[in-house]
Fold this protein.
Amino acid sequence: MMISRQFESTVRQTLLQVPAVVLLGPRQVGKTTLARTLAKGWPGGAVYLDLERPADRLRLDDADTYLRAQQGKLVILDEIHRAPGVFEILRGIIDDNRQAGIQSGQFLLLGSAALDLMRQSSETLAGRVAYIDLAPLSIGEAAAAGIADSTLWLRGGFPDSLLAADDTRSLDWRRDFIRSYLERDVPMFAPRLPAVTIGRLWTMLAHNQGGVLNQARIASALGIANPTIDRYIDLLVDLQLVRRLRPWGGNLGKRLVKSPKVYVRDSGLLHGLLELETVNDLLGHPVCGHSFEGHCIDNLIQAAGKRHVPYFYRTHVGAEIDLVLEKGGKPEIAIEVKRSMAPSPDKGFSVACDDLQIAQRYLVYPGLERIPLRHGAQAIGLQALAEILAQA
């Protein structure tokens, strides 16, 4: 079963505007499938190179000659981190093509390590490249394929996990995915960091899903220095496996929580780390509410896109908003998440919304009906709110 990705049109339109696009996302999230789909119908044709294959890397032994010979085609370079020296060559080709009047649609670069790739490419391709993050399948994409949100929540948005024949096979796929990241990707992207310790940290973050980061406690549990935790979490964030949600820090004259909240981004990977196979396993686990919260937050941030900057808000006296979406430097939308069919906002949510003077107040719950609530809030389903944010 092939699920249509909403990102396809975004990538296509961006390629028509700039010479090169860097498509970023975790391994197995669907970057290659999307690129091959684009290649099939690309005007002038396309060339696809997987730089994990020795035969394809050999073609780039004389990269300048080979890539110039593909003039007029879309050149797709998968696993581009395997050939970092290519960026400088791309700059020369793009600049020469500009002189010849060719302004767009030349290169599509696929990679997994966001910060590393952005650093390499921005140093050499500044003004010539656009970046697009490809996230796991969203609630809208799953719904369009007839997949229930409960299945997406349990299995996560990686296509092979979501579309597995049953929950057991889905969990097996996620176990293998986690193991391959720890055995292969961590040593490749961060050879000096111990993969076993990264795995223990990843599991600790899963048990503390959505909690405010307490680096001292984690450092003590892992037996490593406090500052080292930052480097380890940076790697998981860079690989787009963990989200570090920053606290809103405006000057309101109140004592605000200043540490970030941390989420395992994909709910399926969260459940894989915790060995939760079925919905019943999940519903009976202490992480259940925080798992649903993380599932909603990741989908809503994805729907809001680059138009909004996400934060959470919490004071030391209990006023709290799970997700604040800021636009133009002003908090615009407040979102609370509750896994309850009889949702009611906490008093601290209303106080926090008043603190930030936010009029758009939503409470996301598992139902479909929109329900007016006190203090100007509205209960709403995840998919419905994601559709609103996509248009905001």
